[in-house]
Amino acid sequence: MIGKPLFRRYTPVSWGAWMKESQPVYAAAAAAANDHSGSVWVMKHFTGRVLLQYDSFENFVADLVTVVHELPQPFYGTGHVVYGAAVYYHQAGTDLIVRSELHWTFI
After folding, report:
1. Could you tell me the pTM of the whole model?
2. Could you list the pLDDT tens digit for every one of the 107 residues in the chain?
3. Which of 41, 86, 94, 99 is deepest in the core (most CB within 10 A)?
4. How far is 76 from 95, CA to CA, in rounded Å?
5. How far apart are CA 22 and CA 74, in angstroms?
């Protein structure tokens, strides 16, 4: 059964993606080490070079950014994924999928 939808957060940006670590083994290991398993990553709009990291869903809701990652290549689209401490995304202007390591440095 699907229940009533719950409003969690408003953003003025109409496009984008928010993601969580999708590799269960890595998420469990990260939880034991630095607790990044609860992190939420956001790529605003459908093009750009910035990946925002929130260290918890609560910080995501409150818009309290933990880390701002500058991606080596610009992204295009909204079909990104965080998997195994890396983000995979479509490189703008190409037919390539790029893998970029996520480094755990905090601001």
Report:
1. 0.78
2. 788 877 677 777 778 888 888 876 655 555 555 555 688 999 999 999 999 999 888 998 898 999 899 999 999 999 999 988 899 999 999 999 999 988 654 44
3. 41
4. 10
5. 22
Quote the CA–CA distance of 37 and 24 in Å, as a whole number: 9
* Long-range contacts (CB closer than 8 Å, 24 or more residues apart) made by 7-10: 8/61, 9/60, 9/61, 9/63
Six token digits for residue 88:
């995979």
DSSP state of 20: -
